[in-house]
Amino acid sequence: MPGQTVRARIGKKKKNYAEGRVVEILSQSQYYIPPECPHFGICGGCHWQDISYGHQLHWKRNHVIECLSHIAGVSEADVQPIVASPEQFHYRNKMEFTFSAKRWLLPDELEGSFDREELFALGLHVRGFFDKVFNIGGCLLESPAAAALMKKVRELAKASGLPAYSIRNHDGFWRFLVVRETKRTGQMLVHLITSANPNAESAVDSLSRRLAADFPEISTFIHSTSDSKSQVAAGNSSRVLFGPGFIEEKLGERTFRISANSFFQTNSLAAELLYDTVKEFAGFEGTEDVWDLYCGTGSIGIHVASLVKKVTGIEIVADAINDAYENCRLNNVRNCSFLAGDLKDMIKMAAEAGRPDVVIADPPRAGMHPKVVKTLLDVAPKRIIAVSCNPASLARDAALLLDSYEIKAIRPFDLFPQTPHVECVMMLDRKT
Ligand SMILES: C[S@@+](CC[C@H](N)C(=O)[O-])C[C@H]1O[C@@H](n2cnc3c(N)ncnc32)[C@H](O)[C@@H]1O
Asked: pLDDT for 164-213, tens place per residue?
């Protein structure tokens, strides 16, 4: 933390920087505050919780400025004040929990009288270890209802007698629990992912009935099965045990459908502010053809649809595209169309159909594929609005555009309080 003096062990040494791990804090920073979560330091979720919120915002904006300067070579960009999250805790609308057959023991569990044979876990990963899971009591980023639900699922799954999945042996049944909830409409989606085992389906059915009785706020329950060896909380096949199989959230005036596997911004209230900035930066006049790249369930495109001539969204997840069309129907939006597929291939198809006036691009953390950036340079929209959750890949992509585009403004957003992550909206204008 800035202001701390620490003893650190250097792990990686490069020409102009080194990476190290803190061994001991010798003197504390003036920005330090005692963290509220009892799992702080063990869990990888929010390790900035010990920095006061005002300073978290300060260092996030600084990180954006540094990335632009070091990676894009831009030192005079207009990096505006960072927009704070409306909620500093309990802001997440999605939590993913992992089952484990061999749980990580917390210091107090090791000290107490503990049955070492009893290692069933449902919780979060220990920081830095993809294969170690500890039993959390609750998480300050989720709602109290989601925390209570997670504990109940742990209790019921353990009582079923079926084993948790083992990442080492690739056997066992219970794999992941994903809880999604809306902030404006009070709906909750439970997605349970297990190994495929038809004989064990009745255990999931009975768990879902018990859960529905205790948590009336659950609007839908989905069971998916996965045989994948990778630790990804998604399934190959799904069945809806009750409810419609999706939930609906309101952002501003618009309603959005969220299914088990589609992307939706995790901080709904801050996302509203982000989308309003996209609108503001785009400065639409009503005549524009707009591309919404990496569109997910179409939320940004649908947000701006009434201000433009037409929107073309492109997204790799087919379920998200289905949701995007449903979202258009829900909101009575008729000027959006969507293409499903990998953007690096689909963008050429979109370019053959016509050139956009404005492009909105909201890629995942890795940023845009170089072929996507190249096509943007070819089709040369007058304005590009780049939305990004990773200032480093944003700066790298912006650098590739700078011969033809000028950065007009950047507004950072805190979508992820208590973590080092920062989101940005950047406005780039064509030079001629
Ligand atoms: C940061 S999300 C943005 C979603 C959307 N704009 C929103 O605000 O809800 C990035 C999206 O890119 C999609 N994606 C990832 N890789 C992709 C690719 N190669 N081609 C097209 N879409 C991709 C993801 O599925 C995800 O929906």
From this structure: 998 888 899 999 999 999 999 999 999 999 999 888 899 999 999 999 99
Kindly report the protein residue whose alpha carbon is nearest to atom 27 of ligand 1: 296
* Residues 351 and 282 reside in one and the same domain: yes
Same domain, 102 and 77: no
pLDDT at 114: 65
Q: Is the pLDDT of residue 117 over 70?
A: no
Split at pLDDT 50, 70, 90, the class of 113 is low
Q: Is 380 left (phi over 0), alpha (psi -120 to 50) or beta?
A: left
pTM over 0.85, yes/no: yes
Rg (CA), the chain: 23
Tell me, yes or no, whether 225 and 353 share the same domain. Answer: no
Cα dihedral 342, 345, 348, 354 in deg (nearest 10): -20
The letter for the amino acid at 127 is: R
Which structural domain, as residue segments, surrounds residue 285? 71-87+267-430
CA distance 313 to 305: 11
Amino acid at the residue 264 = F
**Would the CB of 174 count as within 6 Å of ligand 1?**
no
* 64 φ/ψ angles, rounded to the nearest 5 degrees: -65, -45
CB of 100 within 6 A of ligand 1: the answer is no
Per the CB < 8 A criterion, the answer to whether 387 and 425 are in contact is: yes
CB atoms within 10 A of CB 294: 20
Q: Is the CB of 425 under 6 A from ligand 1?
A: no
The DSSP letter of residue 385 is E
* Ligand 1 centroid – CA 223 distance (Å): 24
Residue type, 11: G
Q: Is 362 in the pocket of ligand 1 (CB under 6 A)?
A: yes
323 CA → ligand 1 middle, Å: 13
Active site residue ranges = 389
Ligand 1 centre distance from Cα of residue 364 (Å): 6
Backbone angles phi, psi at 7, to 5 degrees: -100, 125
